[in-house]
Design goal:
By secondary structure, the protein is α/β, with parallel strands linked by helices. It folds into two domains: 159 residues, Alpha-Beta Complex (Aspartate Aminotransferase, domain 1); 245 residues, Aspartate Aminotransferase, domain 2. Helix content is 38%, strand content 16%. It has 13 helices and 15 strands. It has a seven-stranded mixed beta sheet with strand order 4-10-9-8-7-5-6, with helices on both faces. A hairpin with a 2-residue loop joins strand 1 and strand 2. The longest helix is centred in the last third of the chain and has 22 residues. It is globular, with a radius of gyration of 21 Å. It binds 4'-deoxy-4'-aminopyridoxal-5'-phosphate. 4'-deoxy-4'-aminopyridoxal-5'-phosphate binds next to helix 5.
Length: 431
């Protein structure tokens, strides 16, 4: 009988395609809130949250109960064939949660990439235009259109082209890496000059905080500029909130912090607490353009996933999780900044709500992906599941459930501090 992580890794490597990466060579046995146990009985604190899927934690009792109850009713109808109440309620709730003083509608789907694909389809149909502008370092998924939109070649796009045309990348403003807001604005002008006229652009798609790209926060001033630019040229503004949404940043949608109202929003991940569900929500006049039958999918808006999403939304209310996210984010930033004062390797600590990361540089001031990898690996040995990210692979992101106790969070942070001390000894800057 296969019982150890090592044995399972052997079987995994023989059976699973090489292109599927695995950060940690462990297999999960069970999980509860912000803790996970592997098949050998080892306990870990989970700061990765299955890549931003577990804002309400592993197996939240209310979410699990809702899924169990739905399991007893029915598990699948295909909404386009026979509808179900939970789908409609999720759509109503998303319409109410999305910013904007206008009528809204939603379509439910299954994965994040599928939501982005559908947002582009809807924007093209509504504007009768084809071009799409996204940003350097952005991540939008692994389907061919979303890969075209993704602003990082390796490893996502390697060998998979050609990609759908009419996708152009503007520069994402990133002060730490020398891209000013002015340069980002100019890069949009250059696209209109060199690549496509503004009157043929259907949508500008931006992550309010880049997720895979490195937790870089889009300056609110830049988001406001995009809104003006879109209004001027009849372009739709789409916020890809697949990683930022579902309450991670202290608002249900991160773009709310900026006061900017996008035309469409994509959401997924923590929306249904681990059961696959995604959505596009936005202006009803735009959402209604595709004809009946043009949108949907066999599993889209699955009953179990919708029941889970309604429970997630109830848990956010009952446990005041938006407020909790702000408190947790503040605590994480404060603790990480304390580490930054002792460790020159930490070039920056940043966050919006509980979407927090720290970025590592070498003594020479270059992005230090090796140190990020070493910290992630060493943390696992000490019982903490961490996740790196970033265009340079040198940022470590923290996506611990918002339901985690501060004691547990501090236990995790102490492991990060230990790893830093081991791998990049403190320089007491005060001394
Ligand atoms: N957009 C963003 C901003 C994401 O972070 C992700 C996933 N990391 C996606 C799209 C794609 O989502 P999925 O993996 O569910 O297709």
């Amino acid at each position: 009988m296969t019982t150890t992580n090592q044995e399972w890794m052997k079987r995994r490597n023989a059976a699973v395609a090489n292109g599927v990466k695995q950060t940690h060579a462990i297999f999960a046995e069970r999980a509860d809130n912000a803790e996970l146990w592997d098949i050998e009985g080892r306990r870990y604190i989970d700061f990765a949250g299955g890549i931003a899927v577990l804002n309400t934690g592993h197996c939240h009792p209310q979410v699990s109960a809702a899924v169990r109850a739905q399991l007893e009713r029915f598990t699948h109808t295909c909404f386009q064939i026979v509808a179900h109440d939970n789908y409609v309620e999720v759509a109503e709730k998303l319409n109410a949660l999305a910013p904007g003083d206008f009528a809204k509608k939603s379509v439910l789907l299954t994965t994040g990439a599928e939501a982005v694909e559908n947002a582009v389809k809807i924007a093209r149909a509504a504007t009768k235009r084809s071009a799409v502008i996204t940003f350097t370092g952005g991540y939008h998924g692994r389907t061919l259109m979303t890969l075209a939109m993704t602003g990082k070649v390796s490893p996502f796009k390697l060998g998979f082209g050609p990609f759908p045309g009419e996708v152009f990348h503007a520069r994402f403003p990133n002060a730490l890496h020398g891209v000013s807001i002015e340069e980002a604005k100019t890069s949009l002008d250059l696209i209109f000059q060199n690549d496509v006229e503004a009157s043929r652009v259907a949508a500008i798609v931006i992550e309010p905080v880049q997720g895979e790209g490195g937790f870089y926060i889009a300056p609110f001033e830049f988001l406001r500029y995009l809104r003006e630019l879109c209004d001027k040229h009849g372009i739709l503004l789409i916020a890809d909130e697949i990683q930022t949404g579902a309450g991670r940043t202290g608002k249900w949608f991160a773009i709310e912090h900026s006061g900017v109202v996008p035309d469409l929003i994509t959401t997924a991940k923590s929306l249904a607490g681990g059961i696959p569900l995604s959505a596009v929500v936005g202006r009803a006049d735009v959402m209604d353009v595709p004809l009946p039958g043009a949108l949907g999918g066999t599993y889209a808006g699955n009953p179990l996933a919708c029941a889970a999403a309604l429970a997630v939304m109830r848990v956010f209310k009952d446990e005041n999780l938006l407020q909790r996210g702000i408190l947790l984010g503040g605590h994480l930033i404060e603790q990480l900044r304390t580490m930054q004062r002792r460790h020159a390797a930490i070039a920056e600590v940043r966050g919006l709500g509980a979407m927090v990361a720290f970025e590592l540089f070498t003594a020479g001031g270059a992005p230090d992906a090796d140190l990020a990898r070493a910290i992630v690996a060493r943390s696992l040995e000490k019982g903490l599941i961490l996740l790196a990210c970033g265009i340079y692979g040198n940022a470590i992101r923290i996506l611990v459930p918002l339901t985690a106790s501060l004691e547990l969070v501090d236990e995790g942070l102490a492991i990060i501090a230990d790893c830093l001390q081991e791998l990049s000894p403190a320089v007491d800057k005060a001394a």
